[in-house]
Design a protein that fits this description.
By secondary structure, the protein is α/β, with parallel strands linked by helices. The protein folds into four domains: 87 residues, no CATH class; 65 residues, Alpha-Beta Plaits; 171 residues, Rossmann fold; 201 residues, 3-Layer(aba) Sandwich (Rossmann fold). Helices cover 37% and strands 20% of the residues. The strands form four sheets. Strands 12-13-11-14-15-10-16 form a seven-stranded parallel sheet, with helices on both faces. Strands 19-20-18-21-22-17-23 form a seven-stranded parallel sheet, sandwiched between helices. It is globular and about 80 Å long.
Amino acid sequence: MNDMAGPVIVQSDNTILVEVDNPLFEEARNSISRFSELEKSPEHIHTYRVTPLSLWNAASSGISVEDILSSLETYSKYEIPATVYTTIKEQMKRYGLLRLVMRGDSLVLESKDATLINEILYNKKFKNYIIDRIDDNSLTVHKLYRGHVKQALIKIGFPVEDLAGYEDGDPLDIEIKPLAEDGTGVELRDYQISAVNAFYKGGGPEGGSGVVVLPCGAGKTIVGIGIMAQIKSATLILVTNTVALRQWRDELINRTFLSPDLIGEYSGDKKEIKPVTIATYNILTYRKDKKEGFKHFDLFSSKNWGLIIYDEVHLLPAPVFRLTSEIQSKRRLGLTATLIREDGLESDVFSLIGPKKYDMPWKLLEKSNWIATALCTEIRIDLPEDKRMQYSISKDREKFRIAAENPRKIAIVKKILSRHKEDNVIIIGQYISQLEEFSSIFGFPLITGITPVAEREELYGRFKNGELKALVVSKVANFSIDLPDANVAIQISGTFGSRQEEAQRLGRVLRPKRDENYAYFYTIVTSNSIEEKFAHNRQLFLTEQGYSYTIMNEEMFEKNFEAYNEKSSD
């Protein structure tokens, strides 16, 4: 304990309150965020919750019960309730209590707890998965149901440690090029090497499936390539869209000795199957109607893959989850900036892709200059008088749209742009009509979901080479878009309270900059509206990463703008 000076209050309902104004706040937050989830972050007290999944992810990444209890005892202001000690010890003990292993050709579920094995044997939900009972502590299960077993058991509170190993897949010699003067090749950073090693585990059965969590701009693709170079096997890479697909292809060509003819594109445009094949989630889940099967699912069995990479795993479609439950003998890597899923399927990521293997706090990378220092500002503005009556009589969804499309946002954006004349700006929004209006007013090109891929690539290319200084983009630019020189993002509307979206949008400007290593993230919201409430929800994830928002009303912003102009004219 810290002689009553600690910033943490642990409560018997497994919530943890953290005092923001305490000098030890940042240190405490970094420590407890490894095993708990942020729920609320108002000005003075942040609320975290210890959950079974947060504890199992901690256990899988090597954090011990002693580590967790030591963190709580170090920073706690008061005595820790006995119930919390019990919860942490019991939940942490559950990870590894059940294990899947291979014995000869048989897939075996084993546990030191014979009573638990007995309970599973007589549970109707597991009846179809079990072949036979071997002894008091082990059951033979169907190999095809390896994923189903893990899914079913985590739903009743027992995560399975999968040590059954993996098929090698077709061999493929993948070597990383050394970093050259022309920018090709790569030298992995220390944390990228740590992420590769945490996933691979020397090629043993305890490695080979799981999720690497790194912020946008920190080089998740490079980590994926590093793991491919370790496994040296045919690889299937699943990505969010065709632009991301081609960026992966370019990175593989630039960073490795793989020849282009070994890399295939499987999308709406092409159907190539090569030793390294990159496919989009859209093409995999395409079907003419709901009665038909997914015709492109054959891709998973078209080659003897040794590794499947799920890029932006927090966006993985549910049908691909279902298929993944049946390919558990393949090594599986999930890459993401956030494990948060808006559909609540975090436990499916844990059981089917694998537990969190590596996580690097954003602020640590920022301090090392591996990502830009982010300055986040929220500007709250009033609704015009003529919109207030319409807002007051509308339903919630319509209220959100009225607030999001507040016409007074135009003047604020104009002033932000005048402050950042020499910078590279992206204006991001949710509603196409609003984006079209901003594109027309400011004369910036617009990219939406209906913009042809060739046109998107051409516009992104012109932005990268400096020919374009600004783009207006819809949510298609939330993820997997490489715009390294973008250093200002202006968010004019968002997807309700999506925390993952806030993380992805900030990520568009986090890549390290050549000169001043700063990124500016502006969010404009209508004050005293449902949009303001959702904006606060969206900010939760970034708050957890250590970012704080400077919040201004219109008057404060005007004063700040005037002071900036005076300073600039001097």
